[in-house]
Fold this protein.
Amino acid sequence: MALMLAALACFCAALPLPASAQLERWTLERTVTIGDAFDPETGLTRVGSVIVQGDRLLVAQPMEQRLRVFSLTGDFLGFIGRDGEGPGEFRRVRSMGLHDGRVWVHDSSLRRLQYFDADGRFVSSVRIGGHPALLGARVRAVLADGSMLFKYGASADELVESPPKPEAVFLVDPEWLPQDTVAVLVGHSQVVRLSDGRSGRTTYSAIPESYRSLLSVAPDGSGFVVVHRNGTTSAEPHTFRVIRFDARADTAWAREVPYDPVRVPGTWRSRQVEEDARDTQGLGIPEDRIRQALERAYARLEFFPPVRVVRAGADGSTWLLLRTGVESYEWEVLDESGHAVARVGPPQGGIAWADAESLWSVERDELGISYLVRYVIRRP
């Protein structure tokens, strides 16, 4: 707890940086599409982490326990790993990144990190050690000095508590000794507990709007970003806080981003309750109890959270998906110093990887099949 309080005090002491007076308007040009449902090589299942290593694109495939590798023009180059427990094999691909010219992959089932060279060949395996609590945490990055960034994930029970449990983001050195808590993720995530009230059958559903802090890590471990999304109870202009950390997990900059709160209309609430109630059917819980729980959850949402997603760019940039209306969004791009430099309309899907020249987006077709799209950034 002392470490968490110290981290929060550090956040409060960091000075905000001013926004740029004039923002460029960037546009996106769709250039490469990857994915073919009928091709066993290029057909993508659920997409996990996506990183660019030199002239290669690496795509984590958690359902298949392997990585797909493509050229930046979309040519299939091969696989890394397969299902299994031996060297270079995976039981559960959890996260991946770059460190010292190699690719690391966190296997949360086998509790180890595996490293692969620039050609995708297995190099080494490191079993996660230290305190037993580390076994349940997720490796988010391997930083420049070999320290690892971990994050504990609060359970659904802990998230529905009031106040919800904070989530610690902390460093562990190469000898598996905890170093410091560098950030604390706080706020409500709008998790709803659904129960039939008789047999004890309970499940959880997360509504799509959350005031929980956001975390995004640069793919090469050169830094990470935390966004604190404070709730508001009025339509007056407000701010949310963005903090960028460098490769040593020191605060590089902090900034208060201004925004105009967007009020949640009653028609939007009603539509979301109907959609969520339909999606949660078949759980063995009466529909009227599901609907009542969802209505109570949505009734607490007076204003939308100001930012929905953050992405730490591979070049030191920071990308914030801002809500500009009830159904509209726009990405704001911050440079390596935290100054706002551009706005760009969102691609059809979410941004999986970005720098100042291009980005990769994970999109879905009408059947829900995933594919990757590369967009080149066009500046005025």
User: Anything to note?
Assistant: The mean pLDDT is 89.
